[in-house]
Each structure stands twice: as structure tokens, then as C-alpha cells.
Amino acid sequence: MAEGSPKDSTSSKEADSSNEGGLWSGIKSLLFGEGEETSLRKELEEALDEYDEDEKDENPPAKGDLSAIERQMVRNLLHFSEHTVDDVAVPRSDIIAIEEKASFADLAALFAEAGHSRIPVYRENLDTIVGMIHIRDAFAILAGKAPVPETLEPLIRQPLYVPESMGALDLLAEMRAKRTHLAIVLDEYSGTEGLLTFEDLVEEIVGEVEDEHDDTPEAMLVPLDGGLWEADARAELEDVAEEIDPKLGEVEEDVDTLGGLAFILAGRVPEPGEILEHEESGWKLEIVASDGRRVTRLRLHPPAEREVVEE
Q1: How many other C-beta atoms can be found within 10 angstroms of the C-beta atom of residue 110?
Q2: Mean pLDDT, residues 178-189
Q3: CA dihedral in degrees (35, 38, 40, 46; nearest 10)?
Q4: Statement: residue 183 has pLDDT above 70
Q5: Cα separation, 186 vs 140, whole angstroms
Q6: Taking a C-beta distance cutoff of 8 angstroms, is the pair 301, 288 a contact?
Q7: Is the separation of the CB atoms in 192 and 126 below 8 Å?
Q8: What does pTM read for this prediction?
Q9: 210 Cα distance to chain centroid
Q10: 116-134 mean pLDDT
């Protein structure tokens, strides 16, 4: 091919571009350090940190600027894309659902007891969730304007079924697009891992949203005399490790809650009155209450040496 052809010209431009790229990389390394890259996310976080420091130094932001609550919401939004649905989902042990063969009277009673607007429907066990029922579809029947169905099948709608590894932001977008407010989270074996509502995802950004029907939240961990702790089985092991003893969070199995830890230690659903020992920490888990399917309340007894120290 003759010298000065279009191909030679293109190669020359690519070489110049490559040299410019290398020069720019060198300048960035000089200014920001090796491996440092600026990003809008990082700049926003640094700006939020500066505002927080100004408030600590009693230098409030200018009038009309972001409040502390707004800054926290922005910070939550910046980190929202880092979460998977498994990080946010209601765990399997806390799912309130109804069996496919149940009667409409059973469904109405469960709606009244749970206070939820949507109830998952399962076949035989929670690993086979066949759909959900929205309370709105039951209104006409409850009001006597529609006949009571012989089965729940006419009322069942399809939720989303998503893998536990799916990004929370991706699920939020899919829920909006498909106008579905309930998702069933599946584990790697297609078993039910948890449940997520549109509200759960929004709360990750704006914070907990309580309504007039929500009960006042109870403390998950309550200190007692003698170093004991009363605990809700739903208490996260991360919180237990931070507030009580870091060793209680050292668990090889894939469990996130105290109730899950009790199940692992017993190898089954333990019964009220049983005391299980966590060898890594020396703490003993006394089962206070269970509904037959899961542990609901526990009492944590400290290791003997800690009892002696506290006395």
C-alpha cells in the first residue's frame, strides 16, 4: 500500500491518541496519585462529609442548602447501587404466607392478623411460592358484593421471582416497569430465600417509613441484670457482634440472625427451654419462645468469666 494512504493516516492518529492517553494518565498519577480516579460519586461524598464537619464546628450551611436529613438521603442513594436484593430482603423466617389450599376465611383472618396488603401463596412449603394475593382483590368479597370463592386460585396474582444476587437498583427499576410491588427472592437452588416489597427498597433511600397501622418497633436487644440479654430472634448477627460480643458474629455458616444461629447450633428448630452453647464465644443461647417453625425470642447468657468480672 502506498505511503500516505488512509490506513497509514488512521494508524498515525491512533498512535497520537495513544500517546495523549499515556500523557494524561501520567498527569493524573502526578496530581492524584497512582490508582486514584476522580468520580462524581466520590466528589459528592466528600462534599457531604465537609458539610457534616461544618455542622460539628457550629458553622451551619447557608440558608436553603441541604438539611442533615436530605444529606443522609443523598448518601443512601449514592450507596444504593452497591446493595443486592439479598442485603435488603425480609428473610425467609419472617415471611407471612398462606397455603394454596386454605379457605377464603383463613385468608381474611391472616390479612387481619398480619396487617399486610399482599400475602404470598405457597404450595406445600415456602420453597414453592405460586403467587400472591392483594387485599384489594378481597374487598368485594368481604363487602358481600361478590361470592366467596371455593378456592384462592381466582385471587392469585404473579409476583416477580428474582435471584438473591440481583442488584437492588435493578429490581427497583424492574418493579417500576412491570408495576409489581412484591418480589420473591430465590437462592442458588431456586428455593425461597426471602421477600422484598417496593416499600422495602424505597426505605433504603428515604429511611424507615411507618404508617398509622405499624406497631411501635421493639428493641431487638435488651440488656438485663447479670450480663444477660433478651433478644429478638430477628436480631442481625452484625448488630449482636457490635453491641454484645464480636465473637458472636464469628459463624462459618451462611446465617444472618440470632434465630438462624440457634437453628445451626441445634441442627433443627429448637424448642422453648433449650439452652445452646456457642463454643467460639462461650455465650449460651436460651430459647425463650418458638412458634414451632422458628425461634422468636432468646435470652443470651454470658461466658462464666464475664459473669465473674461484672460481679
Answers
A1: 17
A2: 91
A3: 100
A4: yes
A5: 33
A6: no
A7: yes
A8: 0.57
A9: 17
A10: 93
- Give kind and range of the element (H or E) at residue 30: helix 6-32
What is the phi/psi pair of residue 8, to 5°? -65, -40
Q: Which residue type does 48 have? A: L
What does R_g of the chain's alpha carbons equal in angstroms? 27
DSSP state of 294: S
> d(Cα 80, Cα 233) in Å, to the nearest integer?
26
Say which amino acid occupies 255: V
71-85, 188-202, 253-267: which range is least confident on average? Answer: 71-85
| Cell 466528600, residue located | 46
Question: Measuring CA to CA, how many Å separate 111 from each of 11, 22, 114, 116?
Answer: 70, 64, 5, 6
In this prediction, residue 148 carries a pLDDT of 93
pLDDT at 7: 46
**Roughly what angle, to the nearest 10 degrees, separates helices 68-80 and 40-56?**
150
In one-letter notation, the amino acid at residue 34 is E
- Check pLDDT > 80 for residue 53: no
In this predicted model, what pLDDT tens digit does every residue of 58-105 receive, in sequence order? 655 565 677 777 777 888 788 787 888 988 888 887 889 999 999 999
**142 closest CA partner among 99, 104, 110, 115:** 104
Instruction: Report pLDDT digits (tens) over 273-282.
Output: 999 999 889 9
List the grid coordinates of 94.
419472617
Average pLDDT of every residue of the chain? 80
Provide CB contacts within 8 A for 120, sequence distance 6+: 95, 96, 97, 98, 129, 131, 132, 159, 182, 184, 195
Task: Please name the residue ranges forming H helices in 35-146.
Answer: 40-56, 68-80, 85-88, 104-114, 139-142
Short-list 104, 123, 124, 100, CA closest to 112:
104
| Grid cell listed for 36 | 486514584
Beta strands in the chain (DSSP E): 90-91, 98-99, 118-123, 125-134, 160-163, 182-186, 192-197, 221-223, 229-232, 275-277, 284-290, 295-301
